[in-house]
Amino acid sequence: MEPSVLLLFALLVGFVLLLVRGYPKARGHLPPGPRPLPLLGNLLQMDRGGFHNSFRRIREKYGDVFTVYLGPRPVVMLYGTEAIREALVDQAEAFSGRAPVAVVKPVFRDYGVIFSNGERWKALRRFSLATMRDFGMGKRSVEERIQEEAQCLVEEFRKSQGAPLDPTFLFQSITANIICSIVFGERFDYKDRQFLRLLNLIYQTFSLSSSFSSQVFEFFASFLKYLPGAHRQIFRNMQEVLNYIGQSVKKHQATLDPSHPRDFIDTYLLRMEKEKSNQHTEFHHENLLISVLSLFFAGTETSSTTLRYGFLLMLKYPHVAEKVQKEIDQVIGSHRLPSLDDRTKMPYTDAVIHEIQRFSDLIPVGVPHKVIKDTLFRGYLLPKNTEVYPILSSALHDPQYFEQPDTFNPDHFLDAKGALKKSEAFMPFSLGKRMCLGEGIARNELFLFFTTILQNFSVSSPVAPKDIDLSPKESGFGTVPPKYQICFLAR
């Protein structure tokens, strides 16, 4: 018998045995959900619209906390503001574990600051927060870096002389340069070929990991990993970025001055040296490479994608852009740079940025969590290591908090007097112990880049506002806005 035929026969026998035995029962007392099929789990309940659309339908039947089987493994879904806050805030420690994302697991392999767990995660997160703070996060220096980068972007837009352009890589360049200045100690020219190559690899990877095929991969990674697919391209892309990071680390090692660390890499190398006699240290080469990859990837793609969606929304709703410009003219004027101190005096602009983040819904199903111990939650017993998806999109579109959740409306964040109104449902950076490391940088970037661009330019589109389609290009792990052309017209 041919080996391939033998393999197929073995798979069929295994499938029949599973059907006969029934689906294995999960330990503990999990929330209800649609009945899974052997091997397939709840695949038949998923549609081409992706995880999020499918979970929304399931929630209508089973409530705010339910279980979905991604292939053979149960995953508990948290739907709505209250359920997510109860888990990630009220029981923050129990829900502080990180579950893997199948398409990137071979790259991150439980190393680095985002996908690690236990003492490794705690040590790396403490170090990363302290080091990023030292190199500008939350200090005046990061504001100055963003202001300088914003002026470089203004000059680049002026060169276009109002001609239509795709803003994807320019928005990537400005956000990447901020995180690069902190991590690598340098910024790059927008025409730098190596830089553009890295940005393209990151953009491709974010798009591929958000595709429908990557969501199917989440069901059957143990089998599909042996076949061609998006996961292989993601691995190749990230290995190329890691190779660049490895070369940068070597340059840092050769030029390191212990009395004057220049950036995140230098500071990590000094910590490695300090702990070299500790056999159990988490400060080793692998954690350095993957932590830098994590910061570079997240620090580039999240803010740049939000800006891309933001300016697409300004094209769709030009009256909003005009109101922002009116507030800019009143508070800042045209002769000085926008500063972070201006934010409290510009409630409408701040509300618009909040609404862009809410509407763009960047990480709709959240980065997966897991419980680190047997956990009682809403009457259910979640066994240790149960995976949990906090569906951030369900909070950002929660009708109890947002009157028109599916409509772009800055009034969602304004009170009756026109002041900025905070909302417990606003959680684009997630919540709890796993909250986004770079929230402070991202918020500063969005305000300063957004206001600087609209201070200097009006925006228009070759497409009429009524014909602009806001539907995402991909919506899976992340939301990828559609490609579009925009004209920056000097004011």
Automatic annotation (TrEMBL):
Which cofactors, if any, are listed as required?
heme
| Family according to the record | Belongs to the cytochrome P450 family.
Q: Which sites bind heme?
A: C436
Q: What is its EC number?
A: 1.14.14.1
* Assigned keywords, A-Z: Endoplasmic reticulum, Heme, Iron, Membrane, Metal-binding, Microsome, Monooxygenase, Oxidoreductase, Signal
State where it is primarily located: endoplasmic reticulum
Reactions catalysed, semicolon-separated, are:
an organic molecule + reduced [NADPH--hemoprotein reductase] + O2 = an alcohol + oxidized [NADPH--hemoprotein reductase] + H2O + H(+)
- Under the cellular component aspect of Gene Ontology, which terms does the record hold? endoplasmic reticulum membrane
* Organism expressing this protein natively: Neotoma stephensi
Q: Which Pfam families match?
A: p450 (PF00067)
Which CDD domains did the record assign?
CYP2B (cd20672)
Q: Which InterPro entries match?
A: Cyt_P450 (IPR001128), Cyt_P450_CS (IPR017972), Cyt_P450_E_grp-I (IPR002401), Cyt_P450_E_grp-I_CYP2B-like (IPR008068), Cyt_P450_sf (IPR036396), Cytochrome_P450_fam2 (IPR050182)
Membrane topology classification? Peripheral membrane protein
Q: Name one GO biological process term.
A: epoxygenase P450 pathway
What is the protein's name according to its record? Cytochrome P450
